[in-house]
Amino acid sequence: SNQSRGAAGSASEPSYAFYADHDSGMYRGGTNILSFATAGTKRITVLADGKVGIGSGTPSGLLDVNKGTQANIQIKTTDSGSINSMVFSIGSATNQIFSRGANSSTARNLVFMQGNSEVLKIDTAGNLVLRDGVAQGNSLVSYIQANDVNGVAQYILGQVSTGNQDLYLQQ
Asked: From the centroid of its chain, how far is CA 128?
């Protein structure tokens, strides 16, 4: 066949490595498992079913990120030289989500969408804005609703319609 084959290798001696950096590269982590190492330590594992582990040799989800006491996942753009980022930080004492712009010093709104419609926003001032573009004759209405176990609204606190500054509590 036209395949190139090598020994199984290990994290400290990957099968496919570099002359000047023999402990960084790719190796067989087990049957149908592809692993990558840097500095002699396993960093990434790809299982036969496509699950990818970063810091995890046995990923349980499509992407499994594992790092001791604090794991951070950062997604960012460098559009127009400005770095805008979204950071998910999972720690032993607290979990956090950051929405940042302008090189991590400028706050950004954190918006949750359903389809093309904004349904929840935490603005840069920390205000929580809930929206329902369907209620009240398609006018924009903000409210917080608490449902019972059957999904029936028990308490609603909100604004009746756009332009109405009165709040109502319905039980």
From this structure: 20
- Token pair in block for residue 63: 């992407």
Distance CA 4, CA 20 (A): 21
CA 9 vs. chain centroid, Å, equals: 33
pLDDT, tens digit, 9 for 90 and up, residues 33-49? 999 999 999 999 999 99
> In 8-47, which positions are buried (b, 16+ CB within 10 angstroms) versus exposed (e)?
ebbbeebeebeeeeebbbbbbbeeeeebbbeeeebebbbb
54-72 residue pLDDT tens: 988 888 889 888 887 777 7
The whole-angstrom separation of Cα 132 and Cα 93 is 34
**Total-model pTM:** 0.60
